[in-house]
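Dear support,

Our group has been running a series of protein-ligand predictions, and this particular one with zinc ion is the one our PI (initials K.S.) wants archived with full inputs and outputs. We had some confusion internally about which version of the output was final, so please treat the block below as the authoritative record. The input we submitted was:
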Amino acid sequence: MLYNEKEEEIIQFWKENKIFEKSVESRSKKNPYVFYDGPPFATGLPHYGHILSFVTKDVFPRYWTMKNYRCERKWGWDCHGLPIESICERALNLKQKNEIYEMGLSEFNEFCRSKVLWYTNEWKNTVERMGKWIEFDNAYKTMDNSYMETIWFIFKKIYDEGYVYKGKKVLLYCPRCETPLSNSEVSMDNSYKDVTEKSVIAKFKLKDNSGTYLLAWSTTPWTLIGNVALAVNSKLNYVKIKVEDEFLILIKSRLDIINENYEIVDEFKGEDLINKPYEPLYQVSVETEKIGHFIIDGGEDVLSDEGTGIVHMAIYGEFDYEMINKYDMPIIQHIDERGYLADGPENWKGLWFKDVDKKVLDDLNSRNLLFNTEDYKHSYPFCYRCDTPLIYNALDAWFINIQRIKPKLLKTNEKIKWYPKEISKRYQNIVESAPDWCISRNRFWATAMPIWICMQCNTIKVLGSVKELQDHAIETVPDDLDLHRHIVDDIHLKCTECGKIMNRIPEVFDCWLESGSMPYAAKHYPFENVDWFKHNFPSDFVSEYIGQVRAWFYYMHVISILMFDEIPFKNVVVNGNILAEDGTKMSKSKRNYADPSLIIGSYGADALRIYLLASQLMRAKDLNFKEEIVKQVYRRFNLLLVNVLNFYSLFEINNLSADNPKSENILDRWIIDLVNNLTRDVTQRLDDYDTGEASKLIINFVEDLSTWYIKNSRNRFKSELLKEKLAAMNTLTYILHNLSKILAPLTPFISEMIYQKLREKNLVKYESVHLDLWPDFDQSLSFPNLSGKMNLTKEIVQKSLELRERVKIPLRQVLNKITLKGVSLEDEFLELVKKALNVKEVVIKNEDVFELTVELDTEITRELKLEGIARNLIRNVNNYRKKMKLSTKNRIKLYFNTEDNEILESISKYQNYIKKMVQADAIFNKINNNRDIRTFKVNQSEVSIYLEVITFKNSTK
Ligand SMILES: [Zn+2]
Ligand SMILES: [Zn+2]
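Confirmed final output from the archive:
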């Protein structure tokens, strides 16, 4: 059976026996471990980033469940906002926002509703295949009425407490989607791209008839049309220079940008320029009483090392807008909401704002108002959904006042445990620089904002539930009212002040307000589950990739402070990003990564899980995904364990037990000590949300188990001494039982395979390892110094094997003696060395040597040669036994033929030893049969053998 299929069989077992449900139900409600799963969009297929989050979010709930906590897990879907809207616009071939109005909001929103859960089946399959346990089918959705009603409740509470205001602010704005985007939306997916554009130094003529021009620099030529002021730094030095017959003014420190010959005719402070009027480059038709086009003091924000020290001001910048307000200048928005030129030169009207750049350059040039232009490379923001270049735009919007709660956010951040720790500081910086939160969107498919305004007297009414709406609405409102815009827009209120009609404002909520409200809205709190909520808030654990630090984590924190003055989560695990092998972004079109289903098909989910969990992703660092390493993990971890399990299955014995076997054998004691220490160390790491170290400890243990313990214990498992065999078997049972539990959170499949093997033998208590309890460290099982001495033993063996390798004497050739210097070890360890190296004697000579040295006596005497031949024969006979599928219970008669005298001598000398090792009752020096003969080479001569299997009556039948 393929490894992949074994895992799928386990998934079936879990499903059929409802193991996940039992793992939750068997734990007391009084002892919860609370976990919030952040809702993803189902508008695309799950990728590696999602798989990483499935795995991280699965490990800790499994771990704490085994520690006897009740961890309820419910899936959720993010259904609203720009991502789904832009997919639907593309599907419907809508290019502009007004086409949505033409189509009808109802039709558009219902189309979004029909598309939003498009890929849920694919998600379910991947979640299940990765071994992530969660209640999937009854997922909460942010478009549920109950979810949206909680959003209303939360908004009303925040509004009533005075945290909400309406204002004009300069925000990043997508002219195609016609909506503002929040800074976090833009920065979380790194929507900035390096672009090369034309920067320009334009000449603004002073209105003093002196023929003097101010040089002002801009990287967005189209904004020059809406210029309202020029800003200088009043404290810095400026110069007036003469170039040919023109006078130019710029900051003194930037004189190096002048390539022509010039003569300085005057030098003065920036303050001498303040309030001087100049001629605008373009006329706009905006009528305003406010006066613009004079020089203002921009203070320290006007830099001396960039541009010309004279900054052009239009509404399209945060600093500009601040200055426009400060100096009470006119607001000129010469670009319409869709990004087209609405004001300025008549024949340019209707041009896309980016196309205006070139027009301005040519036009200024023809009017001799262009000082110079050059290529300018900078990082520019683009819409994360439609890839349109964003602009800064001054917009009317609704805000939550973050500045007022900032001290609380910062203070309570100290209570949050971030993994890795350094994210805490980064988060602190994010909070410190956070602007007020723009929570309104000029879009369609999201929770409608519950604000109504009177057309007559501007009275505002904010509602917090469907019930309140029923109480105030003019129309009849059903209990199950859909709170989407296309429904709620048709409901009106009667103004309590003047009795006239109130309309809902057109805005909908930012979908981050929705996902940030998940702890309450997923449970329809406080309309339902008030009691449940008391025991399930805040959450013990959340996890997402690093982009969510300034997004989901931040918004959850903000809302929870506004609601309860409390942190929403205690422990946060932050993942890095998974990149393609070459370090670039994984991209479907570039085909620079293997499909996750292929990786899982080849190596199984566990190998992928532990590869991710052991990686630097868990320390919030990016990882270049390498299939080769998954393959190595599969070999070094999964296959080794499967081999151990197969080996274990070979032997049958009565009175087997999974309890501490209390064996005297040094290897048994060592591996018990090791698994006990592993329990302690992995517990510590997982308590500290560190899967990286935990995974490495486990991988190393599996290697020790397979390549040292099993390898050097084989003979004891085959021993005819019942006591010796039972000690070995009991020890391995004990190890496998404990190991299956330690593996369970990280690699749930192989852990279950091991556990079920023990369950077949009635050695374990529970139906599944995932219902069992986490093992405890047991002080009484600790043998101090043991592992140190064993490591030394391993080192000696390793060095000696290298020596053998060098002189090319295979391990099965027994040698006389090994001499050790600079070491002291008890006999039981030396005995191990002897067996592992196939030598007859270990001698220790400690004469003035402090460093370990190993000398191997490589002389092959006749004695040794004969012994080597005997072992070689044994190996060949046993291979044949294996081929014939004989078990250790099947006894044989061994017949052989050879002409080699040394072989004959060896067989006669080692007759009894050979019999014992191949389970033979007798050996005959002839073959009187011509079938089933096997021939092989020993001592460079041919030997033929025939095995007669002895059948005997089974006395128990
Ligand atoms: Zn857009
Ligand atoms: Zn009114």
